[in-house]
């Protein structure tokens, strides 16, 4: 059985060791596995190569289309488990795209990983719209949940599913991360926090941006808002260190 991954270069699956750049695990050495395909289409997405293939007419502000053959590759579950085990970090971050679209295959991969290298901390990064596969859920240590606000360009009927948001809010392993571009986005965040009773200790705000200059410009007022409302702020460490590049 196989998983469908994004690539760093044609034919090279995006599996790499780095520092986690966002959220509650920021700064921790981690092994990343980036899966391909997404059920949403954020207009500012910095990994559009995982979903906006030639022929896909969903909007992205860069208006770039990527060739599927060069940006998507399949890999045997056992081979992926071995590739993760061979890297140094003891923390695995499964990201995308939307990784929970491949939940059953991920569950088998993580089971295979446990047989090679037991006890790794496993995180999943998700857009909040897909329920975890039960076999996968039993093995996940942390969910990094990033619901998409209106400025993402996704309709609420696709991006903000009440039953899923309620389930994530009730899940103590789930940390919420909202991407914020302007002050106008903050009212939407606060309304969602109130509606779903999301604890401030599990709610991060992160500036949208693919360059250090943009991130820093937005960080000041966003950090002030977090301190005033009992929320957590997260930077985008990897952007400052390596820029907006694959495999970092």
TrEMBL record:
**Protein's recorded name:** 7-carboxy-7-deazaguanine synthase
Give EC number(s), comma-separated. 4.3.99.3
For the keyword Iron, the answer is yes
What GO annotations for molecular function exist for this entry? 4 iron, 4 sulfur cluster binding; carbon-nitrogen lyase activity; magnesium ion binding; S-adenosyl-L-methionine binding
Residue ranges under compositional bias (Polar residues)? Answer: 1-11
Please list where the region (Disordered) is annotated: 1-25
Keyword terms of this UniProt record: 4Fe-4S, Iron, Iron-sulfur, Lyase, Magnesium, Metal-binding, Queuosine biosynthesis, S-adenosyl-L-methionine
Pathway given in the UniProt record: Purine metabolism; 7-cyano-7-deazaguanine biosynthesis
Q: Where does [4Fe-4S] cluster bind?
A: 38, 42, 45
What reaction does this enzyme carry out catalytically? 6-carboxy-5,6,7,8-tetrahydropterin + H(+) = 7-carboxy-7-carbaguanine + NH4(+)
State the function annotated in the UniProt record.
Catalyzes the complex heterocyclic radical-mediated conversion of 6-carboxy-5,6,7,8-tetrahydropterin (CPH4) to 7-carboxy-7-deazaguanine (CDG), a step common to the biosynthetic pathways of all 7-deazapurine-containing compounds.
Domain of life the protein comes from: Bacteria
Membership in a protein family: Belongs to the radical SAM superfamily. 7-carboxy-7-deazaguanine synthase family.
Pfam families assigned: Radical_SAM
**Which residue ranges does the record assign to the Radical SAM core domain?**
25-244
Annotated residues that bind substrate are located at: 19-21, 34, 95
Task: Kindly list the biological process annotations in GO that this record carries.
Answer: tRNA queuosine(34) biosynthetic process
Species the sequence originates in = Novosphingobium resinovorum
Positions contributing to S-adenosyl-L-methionine binding? 44-46, 97, 146-148
What binding details are noted for the cofactor?
A: Binds 1 S-adenosyl-L-methionine per subunit.
Q: Does the keyword Transferase apply?
A: no
Assembly and partners are described as:
Homodimer.
Cofactor(s) needed by this chain: S-adenosyl-L-methionine; [4Fe-4S] cluster; Mg(2+)
The record lists Mg(2+) as bound by 47
């Amino acid at each position: 059985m196989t998983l469908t991954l994004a690539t760093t270069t044609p034919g090279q699956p995006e599996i790499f060791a780095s520092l986690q750049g966002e959220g509650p695990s920021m700064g921790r050495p981690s092994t990343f596995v980036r899966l391909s395909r997404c059920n949403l289409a954020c207009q500012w997405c910095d990994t559009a190569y995982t979903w906006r293939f030639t022929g896909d007419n969903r909007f992205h502000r860069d208006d770039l289309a990527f060739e599927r053959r060069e940006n998507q590759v399949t890999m045997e579950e056992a081979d992926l488990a071995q590739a993760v085990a061979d890297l140094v970090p003891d923390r695995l971050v499964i990201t995308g795209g939307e990784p929970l679209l491949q939940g059953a295959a991920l569950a088998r991969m993580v089971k295979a990983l446990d047989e090679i290298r037991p006890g790794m901390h496993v995180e999943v990064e998700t857009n909040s719209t897909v329920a975890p596969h039960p076999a996968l859920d039993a093995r996940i240590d942390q969910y990094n949940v990033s619901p998409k606000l209106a400025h993402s360009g996704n309709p609420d009927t696709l991006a903000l599913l009440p039953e899923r948001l309620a389930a994530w809010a009730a899940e103590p392993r789930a940390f919420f991360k909202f991407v914020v571009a302007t002050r106008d986005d903050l009212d939407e965040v606060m309304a969602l926090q109130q509606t779903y009773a999301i604890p401030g200790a599990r709610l991060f705000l992160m500036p949208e941006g693919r360059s250090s200059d943009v991130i820093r410009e937005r960080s000041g007022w966003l950090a002030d808002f977090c301190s005033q409302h009992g929320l957590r702020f997260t930077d985008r460490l990897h952007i400052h260190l390596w820029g907006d590049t694959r495999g970092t």
